[in-house]
Amino acid sequence: MPKGGRKGGHKGRARQYTSPEEIDAQLQAEKQKASEEEEQEEGGDGASGDPKKEKKSLDSDESEDEDDDYQQKRKGVEGLIDIENPNRVAQTTKKVTQLDLDGPKELSRREREEIEKQKAKERYMKMHLAGKTEQAKADLARLAIIRKQREEAARKKEEERKAKDDATLSGKRMQSLSLNK
């Protein structure tokens, strides 16, 4: 069964609104109460008044100091230990006239790292092209081995071609000799 029984939920309930007259009456009652309290505070300078208020009226300079102490008083351990966060940066607003647009702009950490990375890459490429890096030396050694292998393969091909040419020439000579007979 749903909440609220068979008749339905909370959505069909009648709403109660306060009338404007009631609101005005409440506001007037609050104003009267506040004005009565003020009158009691002003009129109660005798023995019936609060001792703190009497002291404030006598020594106005000391009362200001006490108010400052009260505002500075902190809860719990905060009053015992004075802590200031060194990482906290107080935000200061600058006027447009104070901004220095002509001065050198400081780069962020990411921008500096990106520039350093590009410079390191350029240095490495120069060293690589000069053949001073280990990778360049390994590449040059591999190239030398490949060149030797290609030279050997070309020499073998030439020898085979010469042998083939010699064989074909000797075969032609044999045929021409046999024909001449």
From TrEMBL:
The record's listing under InterPro entries reads: Casein_kinase_sb_PP28, HAP28
- Protein origin, superkingdom: Eukaryota
Q: Which GO terms describe its cellular component?
A: cytosol; plasma membrane
Q: Where is the composition biased (Acidic residues)?
A: 60-69
- The UniProt regions of compositional bias labelled Basic residues, in chain numbering, are 1-14
Q: What is this protein called?
A: PDGFA associated protein 1
Region annotation (Disordered) maps to 1-117, 151-181
Q: Which Pfam families match?
A: PP28 (PF10252)
Show where the Casein kinase substrate phosphoprotein PP28 domain sits: 85-162
Naturally occurring in which organism (per UniProt): Nannospalax galili
User: According to the UniProt entry, which residue ranges have a biased composition of type Basic and acidic residues?
Assistant: 50-59, 102-117, 151-167
